[in-house]
Specification:
Blueprint lengths: L7 H36 L1 H7 L4 H21 L3 H5 L1 H22 L8 H13 L5 H21 L3 H98 L2 H5 L1 H29 L8 E4 H11 L1 H4 L3 E5 L5 E4 L1 H21 L6 E9 L2 E8 L6 H4 L19 H11 L5 E5 L3 E9 L6
Parallel strand pairs: 2-4
Antiparallel strand pairs: 1-3, 4-5, 5-7, 6-7
Helix pairs in contact: 1-3, 1-5, 3-5, 5-6, 5-7, 6-7, 6-8, 7-8, 8-10, 10-15, 11-13, 13-15
């Protein structure tokens, strides 16, 4: 992953890398290396036995004390404070063996003491094993060299000075190697972090692509359903229109009969039958509108919404019989569109609300219909006081063929058709619900006033 070190992306990755190391990588290595350091400190008892047996008890006590202090730091690394200060605590426990070794150097032979080799091990380990930065590794190397110099100065003689100079030079060489190891280790860790970050980004992109593919698959499936529905609608329209036309013709002939004209109730029944037959024709035509989802003819005709609402209320009066309907419509309801299709939408929303209220056995079923002008569009709301819709169903109610009714009591096309109709009018049909309290269906229509 090649990124310019002067780019904002590089700086962002560097900050993320340092944060990630502080939160996990450095903490884990510090704990592990600390335990190894405790083990090496205690194993040095064998070295004490072979070099300075007369100081075995004294040095063993020093090693035990040093190990106990290191284990205390180990416990602190599991606290929240220790996790936030992992670098400082790592420095602390690394200096503990160095101080112990320098103390042994000062109390034995100074620059000629073999214990100086322990300082080399610690410096090299800090550069190659501990995930330090270059600055931290350099400070640790310089501090070790200064501590060794002080220890040798405490017990100085002619031979000790020469031995100190030799050991100090080797300690400098070890420090240089340690710093180079730190540089390359940090570079490799950063490269690995960049690769992991890039992989995570690619996985995220792949996840988004998969989500898009699922969405496209769903759209294709819906288009297939629409195409099948269009074919079905065309055949259904042909098969249903003929008997409906016969019925309409018979009704019209019946309305011309003087006997029917003399009976107001019979004439009203004939007119209702005529309206019902025309509604059947409209329903079948709506299936075509939904299937093709294109702009339909007659969408730009002005009409009064309150009259359309009255028609829808009358045509769905059978379903609304046990329900109280309350209308609060704006005085100016002149809108533009296809009145027949909007009546169909209203019938669907009203009957859906009524059936939901009746099926749940509501004590006081109520449907409130309101309309208000918002940004030159008439916002219509149909709200019922039923038990609401579950959130997982609310997300799917506009899907074709989705229904929560029992098998055989609905195809699940009503809201899908209604959604398509409102969309073709340049608006949106929106569903809102609070489970156990209410459900509201809202849509908007363009103004019918040419000067609005």
């Amino acid at each position: 992953m090649k990124i310019s070190p002067y780019s904002s992306q590089f700086k962002r990755l560097r900050k993320s890398f340092e944060k990630a190391e502080l939160e996990g990588f450095r903490l884990e290595f510090s704990r592990l290396c600390l335990l190894v350091g405790v083990a090496l400190v205690m194993l040095g008892v064998g070295l004490d036995y072979n070099t300075y047996p007369e100081r075995l008890e004294e040095f063993a006590l020093g090693r035990t004390f040093t190990s106990a202090c290191m284990l205390l730091v180990y416990a602190l690394l599991y606290t929240d404070w220790g996790k936030r200060n992992v670098i400082n605590l790592t420095w602390l426990w690394l200096f503990m063996p160095q101080i112990m070794i320098c103390t042994m150097v000062a109390t034995t032979e100074g620059g000629r003491s073999i214990y100086a080799m322990g300082l080399h091990l610690a410096v090299f380990a800090a550069g190659s094993l501990i995930p330090f930065g270059i600055l931290q590794s350099s400070i640790f190397s310089v501090a070790t060299l200064v501590s060794y110099g002080i220890a040798c100065w405490i017990k100085v003689d002619d031979y000790g000075v020469r031995d100190f100079m030799v050991n100090a030079q080797f300690l400098v060489f070890t420090s240089i190697i340690s710093i180079f190891c730190t540089f390359f280790n940090q570079k490799e860790r950063f490269s690995l972090f960049c690769l992991k970050t890039e992989l995570a980004e690619k996985n995220q992109e792949l996840h988004c692509v998969n989500g898009s593919l699922v969405e496209i698959k769903g759209q294709l499936l819906q288009q297939e359903k629409m195409a099948a529905l269009g074919t079905l609608s065309a055949g259904l329209l042909h098969e249903v229109n003929n008997p409906v036309n016969f019925c309409l013709m018979a009704v019209e002939v019946g309305l011309e009969d003087p006997l029917i004209a003399q009976s107001s109730s019979l004439k009203e029944c004939m007119l209702d039958a005529q309206t019902g037959m025309r509604r059947v024709q409209q329903i079948v035509s709506d299936l075509k509108t939904f299937a093709y989802r294109g702009p339909t003819e007659g969408m730009n005709v002005p009409f009064y919404f309150d009259k359309a609402f009255d028609s829808a209320r009358r045509l769905s009066s059978h379903e609304l019989r046990p329900v109280r309907v309350k209308a609060d419509l704006d005085p100016n309801t002149l809108v533009r569109g296809d009145e027949a299709l909007i009546i169909g939408v209203l019938i669907n929303l009203l009957t859906n609300a009524a059936l939901a209220l009746v099926s749940k056995g509501h004590a006081d079923p109520l449907i409130e219909v309101t309309s208000r002008w918002v940004n030159n569009r008439l916002l219509v709301s149909v709200c019922d006081n039923g038990r609401g819709i579950a959130p997982h169903n609310l997300e799917r109610i506009f899907e074709p063929f989705f229904t929560t009714r029992d098998v055989g009591k609905g195809l699940g096309l009503g809201l899908s058709i209604s959604y398509s109709v409102i969309e073709n009018h340049g608006g949106r049909l929106v569903a809102e619900s609070q489970e156990g309290a209410w459900t509201r269906m809202s849509f908007d229509l363009p103004t019918g006033d040419d000067h609005g």
